[in-house]
Amino acid sequence: MNRSSFAHEIAPTSVEMACVADTKSIVGESPLWNAAEQCVYFVDIPQRQLHRLNVGNMMLESFGTPDIATAVALRRARGLILTFERTLAFFDPATKSFDAAIDMPSEPTGNRFNDGKCDRQGRFWAGTMSKTQWDEPRGSLYRFGSDLTATQMVSELRCSNGLGWSPDSRTFYFVESFAHAIYAFDFEAQSGVISGRRVFATLDPASGAFPDGLTVDAEGHVWNAQPVFGRLVRYDPDGRIDQIVETPVSRCTSCAFGGDDLGTMYVTSAQDSLAPEELIEEPLAGGLFAFRPGVAGIAETPFIG
């Protein structure tokens, strides 16, 4: 549902998109496919909830988190690694327990973690943002190794957000939401060094929309959730719009591939910032959605720590 002031650049592709978990999340985020459990994890940030949807029986289980959880990734040892407001934590689904792992690196007190993901070498990347002044250049992007030592990769970010890697791991994609841009970097897989920052794609700030979470498919195309526009945009490796898929709600927030063939895309969404009359028009806002985009994704690599 497009609530921006702009029309789409190309006609949207018609798809069958279903709400598979009507969680009414205030800010649903960070969908993650866990092949071993055949489930999708995702969070509701302000509600302090970690959700798990079993796609076999479509049963939803929710875990209260001790702090706001902003991003979630697989962990090789067992379970998950999450970013809370100012800490990293591990979660064990068997015991349903959280263990604080490490405090946020030196950051302004008004900052918090936002999105995070593992590269294919198992290092965990997570960015920060201002809690209240989202468009202020106060955020950073960090890379965490197996010992959880943090390396600052980029600074002065206006809301660090979605991230992903090309199939050959030679390009790193990264969203700076309130620069209204997706950037591409050269990526050195062995060392985890990034360089050659360049603009990959932009949104016009006048539209009222901004880029949010992203994923990369097996063909090397980048999928980006764009709330307010209420759409997912598929960009080719040169940053040209290849496809637009409208979502049933205006605040789609992130996307991830899942299913046995990694051919189902799961999309999180939010109710945040919707007026009461808009919520009536969008009864499924905050839900988790799924559709078949006609292309497969790439399996996520667990954190090596």
Notes on the protein architecture:
With 305 residues, the protein is mainly β. Helices cover 2% and strands 48% of the residues. It is built from 1 helix and 24 strands. The strands form 6 sheets. The protein has a 4-stranded antiparallel beta sheet, with no helix packed on it. It has a 4-stranded antiparallel beta sheet with strand order 2-3-4-5, with no helix packed on it. A hairpin with a 3-residue loop joins strand 7 (80-83) and strand 8. The radius of gyration is 17 Å and the shape is globular. It starts with 17 loop residues before the first strand and ends in a 14-residue tail after the last strand. The mean pLDDT is 97.
